[in-house]
Design brief:
heterodimer, A: 5-stranded parallel beta sheet, 19 strands, about 30% helix, B: about 210 residues, alpha/beta, 7-stranded mixed beta sheet
């Protein structure tokens, strides 16, 4: 039998039909739905008088638009002040009721960012295919699942047929060998990878993260890495199944129990790339080379180390990159050659589907403990990824640490990652953000985003500018 | 979806790589629950000098005179010429909806982000991939000639230049078929409903916890 990659195995086990023209029907085990990319899909079903193929495969929760202040979260949808956001959240509610889809609504403590909620509930399982109308669906690949971000037409297609029309992608392995230094997280690793291969480096590929550094990483770290596979152009990110995966999944609400659990474990053990499997492309990364990362520009590939500098035009590889650098200097208000540690911050955002899980909040709180947010920082937000993350953090007293240090402790949602709710940057403001995109205007009109890990964001909030988190004395 | 067979139109050049979907249609406009009406906010932050709001009237807003689509010579353009990795970032299908609503029917670039590429075909928008050298040549011709038009012939898979020269392009056979006939994917997939059901029976036996 030919050796297979993890992606090959997931593809083969979900192949419903291979068509002569090279396309294939792939079966979808789980669809996650949120308010932004689903209304037009439900409308399409209604117009064509179609019903969802398999109701139980779907799980919905509102996340992009929901307000994160307590005052707007006490009376449900009626409390949302932005009338346009309110209609969208209400529409999800109405559609879920009409079609009979399970929803964790705004008042449910299981509500949160879809990519935090799925894994947390065990609704994302090893060996599954997972889709969602959101590019960060790659997150779920951390469970040795095949997870695709899709458009709204495809959301409707999956609702109606339980399948996706796909062409097989290429196999790309990012092999991270060695031991990560103290204070270096999955976020730093994935930003480093994007810096190496570029934002189009993974186009057309399913990207597997392997190597000893990944094998010893927590599920939270793996989710952060797979989440940002899309920022390297790969629609799919994946990590092989192992004991760490099994330990995370066991006992969760939607996870198999009893005999089914034993049966599943046996099946999942095969969710690894065979030793002699052939990848179309392999990128080797040395874990020891990775330092804390900070993006300086308007694309995730415009990234450097905290002890580095904004690159100069001489560093650009070609004319296209050169003009990209020039535009980025102007938009970001930075000078070529400027030290990263000289960038002053106006706001700090700790949250998003990339970094709002309990481990992320613990790492940020460890830095914040006993310190104060700098006076020059207008606002430092901590937005947990779900109601359950929030509850756990409060049990551990993390909320108190943040509040005492001068951070705002908010209700769960996507928040300032894409600023569809009231949490946004003012024009020209610099933000240390644990989110995933530093595009122009992403966090607010004219806002300037710098992507970092949670600990780096917390350290920046305290110092008022970027600092190397490894220099911080952590309270153990 | 409306059918696409052949299309002639003015070419607008956006000489910039990595144009992301946040740039194509900013987040505040994603609050709509409709598929139409995104055209006036296409490239909103580049096109206007102020910040756009959803459900607002755009007619009185100050235009950025430097932005390509605001220049008189590119009015009515239906073909967008651009650079590598077009449509990267967010999966929002609002991006092709906005391009299509504005009047674009064809995009020409050296590469696209996967999700955007896929979404375009579902909305009657044809993303064409050409070599960087050919793209360079087109940029030179478009900027040198006012009213520069191309004809895109999907059936024969070529682009006809004003001088009659042909530029061939590749397109996936299934997508071409759907685009030329304005076909709805869902209807086609449902013709294979028996295969889907048979797969489910097999899957339920091997992985019962999924059912």
């Amino acid at each position: 039998m030919t050796a297979k990659t993890l992606y090959d195995k997931l593809w083969d086990s979900h192949l419903v039909k291979q068509r002569d023209d090279g396309t294939a029907l792939i079966y979808i085990d789980r669809q996650l739905l949120h308010e932004v990319t689903s209304p037009q899909a439900f409308e399409g079903l209604r117009i064509a008088a179609r019903k969802p193929w398999k109701l139980s495969a779907n799980l919905a929760t509102p996340d992009h638009n929901v307000p994160t202040t307590k005052t707007e979260r006490t009376v449900g949808i009626a409390g949302i002040q932005d009338p346009v956001s309110k209609i969208q959240v209400q529409t999800l509610d109405d559609n879920c009721n009409e079609f009979g889809i399970t929803q964790f609504d705004m008042m449910d403590k299981r509500q949160g960012i879809v990519h935090v909620v799925g894994p947390e509930q065990g609704a994302t399982l090893p060996g599954m295919t997972v889709v969602c109308g959101d590019s960060h669906t790659a997150t779920h690949g951390a469970f040795a699942a095949l997870a695709h971000g899709i458009g709204t037409s495809e959301v409707e297609h999956v609702l109606a047929t339980q399948c996706l029309i796909q062409r097989k992608m290429k196999n790309l392995l990012i092999n991270v060998e060695g031991t990560l230094g103290e204070g270096i997280t999955g976020k730093d690793v994935v930003l480093h990878v994007i810096g190496v291969i570029g934002t189009a480096g993974g186009n057309g590929c399913a990207m597997e993260f392997g190597g000893s550094a990944i094998r010893s990483m927590s599920m939270e770290g793996r989710m952060t890495m797979c989440n940002m596979a899309i920022e390297a152009g790969a629609r799919v990110g994946m990590v092989a199944f192992d004991q760490i995966t099994a330990d995370y999944v066991k006992g969760r609400d939607f996870a198999p129990k009893g005999d089914h659990w034993e049966m599943a474990l046996e099946q999942w053990a095969d969710l690894v790339s065979d030793e002699d499997a052939v990848f179309d492309k392999v990128v080797e990364i040395k874990a020891e080379d990775i330092k804390p990362q900070v993006t300086w520009g308007t694309s995730p590939e415009m990234v450097t180390t905290v002890d580095g500098f904004v690159p100069t035009l001489e560093d650009a590889k070609d004319e296209v990159e050169r003009s990209g650098f020039e535009r980025a200097y102007k938009y970001m208000g930075l000078e070529p050659g400027q030290a990263i540690t000289d960038i002053n911050l106006d706001r700090v955002f700790i949250g998003s589907c990339t970094n709002s899980r309990i481990e992320d909040l613990r790492a940020a709180a460890a830095v914040a403990k006993g310190n104060k947010v700098a006076d020059s920082v207008i606002q430092a937000l901590v937005v947990p990824g779900s109601g359950l993350v929030k509850e756990q953090a409060e049990k551990e007293g993390l909320d108190k640490i943040f509040i005492e240090a001068g951070f705002e402790w908010r209700e769960p949602g996507c928040s300032m990652c894409l600023a569809m709710n009231a949490d946004k940057l003012g024009s020209g403001e610099h933000c240390a953000s644990t989110s995933n995109r530093n595009f122009e205007g992403r966090q607010g009109y004219g806002g300037r985003t710098h992507l970092v890990s949670p600990a780096m964001a917390a350290a920046a909030a305290i110092a008022g500018h970027f600092v190397d988190v490894r220099q911080f004395e952590l309270v153990k | 979806m409306k059918a696409f067979v052949k299309q002639s139109g003015i070419v607008a050049p956006m000489d910039r790589a990595n144009i992301d979907t946040d740039m194509i249609i900013p987040k505040q406009f994603l609050k709509s629950i409709k598929r139409s009406g995104f055209g006036p906010n296409l490239f909103d932050e580049l096109r206007y000098l102020d910040e756009g709001q959803p459900d607002a009237d755009n007619s009185g807003r100050p235009l950025n005179p430097d932005f390509v689509l605001n220049q008189p010579r590119y009015q009515g353009a239906s073909i967008l010429l651009t650079r590598e990795n077009f449509g990267c970032g967010s999966s929002r299908e609002h991006a092709p909806w906005a391009l299509e609503d504005f009047g674009f029917q064809v995009i020409i670039a050296s590469s696209y982000a996967d999700i955007f590429f896929n979404n375009s075909f579902k909305n009657g928008l044809l993303p064409i991939v050409l070599d960087e050298a050919i793209i360079d040549g087109l940029f030179a011709e478009v900027t040198a000639t006012e009213g520069y038009e191309l004809t895109v012939d999907l059936e024969n898979q070529n682009i006809v230049k004003p001088n009659g020269d042909l530029i061939p392009f590749e397109v996936d056979a299934f997508r071409k078929h759907c685009l030329m006939n304005g076909l709805d994917d869902i209807g086609l997939t449902l013709q294979d409903a028996d295969d889907i059901t048979a797969y489910e029976v097999k899957r339920k036996a091997s992985s019962p916890w999924l059912f």
